[in-house]
């Protein structure tokens, strides 16, 4: 066989005409048997071994990263906001997307180690463990609250669980432990999957635990929409945040989501018991605090604790925003699940608002049947009494977490009827018992406390000027009511007393802040400046912003003065202010304060510059923010989503084109197409100057040419007229090109 092949190849090399090259397209393509080619071409042809393409490994994490995780999340937000009312049945496909798991890993690592981890920094072993966790979730092998067996561990967890002693294993299994790292990952993936679904469905009346909404939004809504209301119902439903029955949560979840995998995961997270270490009162009493506690040295990858100013500000959290739900092993899913359950209450209240609305034609503002159109500024509603049978009956409602506020414009009997219906609804839907004490009805004149701000009514007497018949200008004194949103100074004193910054009620006396005793003066002042800046922002929409911030500044300044007096043995606050100035910006170590040694060291950068305390005078505090709040307000990210969906709709493009055509305009894209079409048809190169002149002189003809080029059904009758116009244009362009160089030379 080998001999026959050698003879055959030798004959081919000597006379290549044996094989008809023209009749074989493969050989004619490569020209293997031309006389110029050598014999190695034939050798390469017969010794060719097919190259086997490498099949991508489905278990390789690198092959699963087809898209960026942020783009996948953006696609989910757009889809759900485009169709907010559809029932979602296939969320498992998003659980399979490995990009979401990598994004969840980056977010959870940022919370664990205190810094963002880019995708390139994730190790190969971590990616494989993450893939194993994803497969375990999809195969129903994942268990919430695991203590010893993990699919993936935190980057800072260096514990070898296989070599632990029995005593340590028992302690891990029987005492309270932080949530496992893999549980946080699954919670994050579920949160990223469910949040866009329900954010497109949630009511505009809820403001807690939602992106782009906070307590400031509630205060601005109250200032705008609650003016003119007499009776208020303030309800505390925070018992729902402590936990509901699993069946109620799952039924509320299945109202919009019908994916069995996701429902089972959340149900297991709610049902699986959380191991909590038992509390023994006898051992608790025996334990004594050490007189001198050692300072803890943080590891390199360990996140730093909250600074003192932030910890102090958290002490000022109002009652309505203090409680954060935590249900079973749901973690960050708990606030979202609480909003899903309470959304039914929001929808029920929206229906009651429409039922309660009864317009009156004699009303100044709300006199339309729909109740949406409003006349005038609602923060200054009317200059007539706001009650009586001839006035419009109206109601509004807001919810922040588990606390609700209902404003009613009408008789108290209507408020009592609504309270009774609300008690029955909560008993039937959430199985919680409410009474009249938990839902008190209060009049606006007594002041309603909500989010540490007091809502009250101020009576004003403005001068009304209007033009009567005959053109005569009349000025009259009017009577009006104005809704006031005022920060509660009493509540502010209570919070300062809780943080040990002062004592006394009628005459608050600042107390020294001994937690900052070992810190430098520059560091202490910087910490308190950040705290004061945060307080200024918190009371941004309060009518008495200047007063309450000035009080906070007085307490902080007095507390630091007493601290420095004890630290530097200056005996009194007066001596501290004398050396360190009113804002404590001068160094207190030096007796003279303005010593040349300190100035020289500061100039050379060898000592810290000391920033004085801010807002030590009333004139330095900013004014209250009275920026008008729109009635159809939405967060910025929702505005962007709605605008993107609107522009992505083909109907919007058609409307824009029809509007441009009606006004006789041409879009830039069509104008460029017209120029290219003219160039191809006329085959003449036009410079910029000639283009401008021809465009200016023959705009109507070009527009007609554009319209004719855009129509598919071309009319053959106008062919001769068009050719004549084109010849006229061409002759004009030729004449212009011939005359232009001569003009330039002249």
Give a summary of the structure in a few sentences.
Helices cover 48% and strands 8% of the residues. With 746 residues, it is of the alpha+beta class.
Tell me what the structure shows.
This protein is α+β, with helices and mostly antiparallel strands and 746 residues long. Among the domains are: 62-201, no CATH class; 224-260 and 269-274 and 305-362 and 382-483, no CATH class; 489-620, no CATH class; 649-687, no CATH class. Helix content is 48%, strand content 8%. It contains 29 helices and eleven strands. The chain has a four-stranded antiparallel beta sheet with strand order 2-3-1-4, with helices on both faces. The protein starts with a helix and ends with a helix. Residues 485-589 form the Domain X domain. This is Nuclear intron maturase 2, mitochondrial-like. Residues 709-746 are annotated as: Disordered.
Topology summary:
Blueprint: H1 2-14, H2 25-30, H3 40-46, H4 61-64, H5 69-82, H6 92-95, H7 98-113, H8 124-138, H9 166-174, H10 181-199, H11 215-225, E1 231-236, H12 239-242, H13 246-253, H14 260-271, H15 281-286, H16 308-314, H17 333-356, E2 394-400, E3 403-409, H18 412-429, E4 441-443, E5 448-450, E6 453-460, E7 463-467, E8 473-477, E9 480-487, H19 489-498, E10 502-503, E11 509-510, H20 521-538, H21 545-567, H22 573-580, H23 596-604, H24 636-648, H25 650-662, H26 668-682, H27 688-697, H28 699-710, H29 719-745
Antiparallel strand pairs: 1-3, 1-4, 2-3, 5-6, 6-9, 7-8, 10-11
Helix pairs in contact: 5-7, 5-10, 5-24, 7-8, 7-10, 13-17, 16-20, 20-21, 21-22, 26-28
């Amino acid at each position: 066989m080998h001999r026959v092949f050698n003879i055959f190849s030798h004959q081919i090399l000597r006379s290549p005409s044996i094989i008809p090259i023209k009749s074989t397209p493969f050989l004619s393509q490569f020209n293997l048997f031309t006389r110029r080619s050598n014999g190695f071409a034939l050798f390469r042809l017969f010794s060719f071994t097919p190259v086997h393409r490498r099949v991508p490994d489905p278990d390789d994490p690198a092959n699963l990263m087809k898209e960026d995780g942020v783009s996948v999340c953006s696609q989910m937000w757009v889809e759900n906001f485009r169709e907010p009312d559809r029932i979602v049945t296939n969320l498992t496909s998003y659980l399979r997307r490995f990009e979401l798991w990598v994004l969840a890993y980056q977010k959870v690592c940022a919370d664990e180690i205190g810094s963002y981890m880019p995708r390139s920094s994730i190790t190969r072993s971590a990616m494989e463990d993450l893939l194993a966790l994803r497969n375990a979730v999809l195969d129903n092998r994942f268990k919430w609250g695991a203590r010893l067996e993990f699919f993936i561990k935190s980057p800072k967890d260096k514990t070898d669980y296989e070599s632990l002693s029995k005593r340590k294993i028992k302690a891990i299994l029987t005492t309270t432990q932080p949530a496992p790292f893999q549980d946080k990952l699954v919670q994050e993936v579920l949160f990223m999957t469910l949040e866009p679904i329900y954010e497109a469905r949630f009511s505009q009346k809820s403001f807690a635990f939602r992106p782009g909404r906070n307590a400031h939004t509630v205060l601005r809504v109250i200032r705008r929409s609650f003016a003119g209301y007499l009776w208020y119902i303030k309800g505390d439903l925070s018992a729902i945040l402590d936990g509901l029955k699993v069946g109620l949560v799952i039924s509320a979840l299945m109202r919009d989501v019908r994916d069995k995998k996701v429902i089972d995961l959340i149900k297991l997270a709610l049902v699986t018991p959380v191991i909590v270490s038992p509390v023994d009162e006898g051992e608790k009493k025996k334990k004594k605090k050490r007189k001198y506690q050692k300072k803890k040295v943080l590891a390199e990858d360990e996140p730093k604790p909250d600074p003192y100013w932030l910890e102090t500000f958290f002490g000022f959290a109002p009652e309505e925003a203090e409680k954060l739900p935590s249900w079973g092993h749901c973690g960050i899913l708990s606030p979202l699940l609480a909003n899903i359950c309470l959304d039914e209450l929001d929808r029920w209240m929206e229906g009651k608002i429409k039922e309660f609305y009864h317009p009156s034609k004699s009303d100044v503002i709300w006199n339309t049947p729909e109740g949406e159109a409003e006349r005038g500024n609602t923060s200054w509603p009317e200059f007539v009494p706001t009650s009586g049978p001839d006035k419009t009956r109206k109601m509004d409602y807001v919810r922040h977490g588990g606390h609700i506020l209902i404003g009613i414009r009408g008789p108290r009997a209507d408020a009592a009827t609504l309270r009774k219906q609300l008690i029955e609804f909560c008993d039937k839907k959430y199985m919680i018992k409410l009474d009249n004490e938990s839902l008190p009805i209060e009049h606006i004149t007594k002041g309603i406390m909500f989010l540490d701000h007091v809502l009250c009514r101020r009576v004003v007497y403005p001068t009304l000027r209007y033009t009567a018949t005959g053109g005569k200008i009349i000025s009259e004194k009017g009577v009006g009511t104005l809704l006031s949103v005022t920060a509660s100074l009493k509540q502010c004193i209570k919070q300062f007393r809780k943080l040990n910054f002062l004592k006394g009620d009628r005459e608050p006396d600042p107390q020294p802040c001994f937690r900052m005793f070992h810190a430098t003066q520059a560091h202490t002042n910087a910490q308190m400046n950040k705290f004061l800046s945060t307080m200024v922002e918190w009371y941004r929409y309060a009518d008495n912003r200047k007063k309450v911030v000035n009080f906070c500044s007085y307490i902080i300044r007095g507390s630091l003065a007493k601290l420095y007096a004890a630290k530097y043995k200056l005996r009194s606050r007066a001596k501290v202010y004398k050396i360190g100035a009113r804002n404590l910006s001068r160094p207190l170590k030096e007796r003279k304060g303005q010593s040349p040694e300190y100035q020289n060291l500061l100039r050379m950068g060898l000592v810290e510059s000391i920033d004085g305390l801010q807002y030590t005078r009333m004139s330095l505090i900013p004014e209250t923010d009275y920026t008008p709040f729109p009635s159809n307000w939405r967060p910025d990210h929702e505005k962007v989503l709605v605008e993107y969906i609107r522009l992505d709709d083909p109907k919007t493009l058609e409307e824009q084109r029809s509007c441009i055509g009606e006004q006789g305009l041409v879009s830039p894209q069509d104008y460029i197409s017209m120029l290219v079409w003219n160039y191809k048809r006329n085959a003449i190169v036009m410079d910029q100057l000639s283009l401008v002149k021809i465009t200016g002189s023959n705009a109507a003809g070009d527009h007609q040419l554009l319209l004719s080029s855009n129509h598919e059904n071309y009319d053959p009758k106008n062919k001769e007229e068009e050719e004549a116009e084109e010849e006229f244009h061409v002759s004009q362009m030729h004449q212009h090109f011939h005359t232009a160089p001569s003009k330039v030379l002249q």
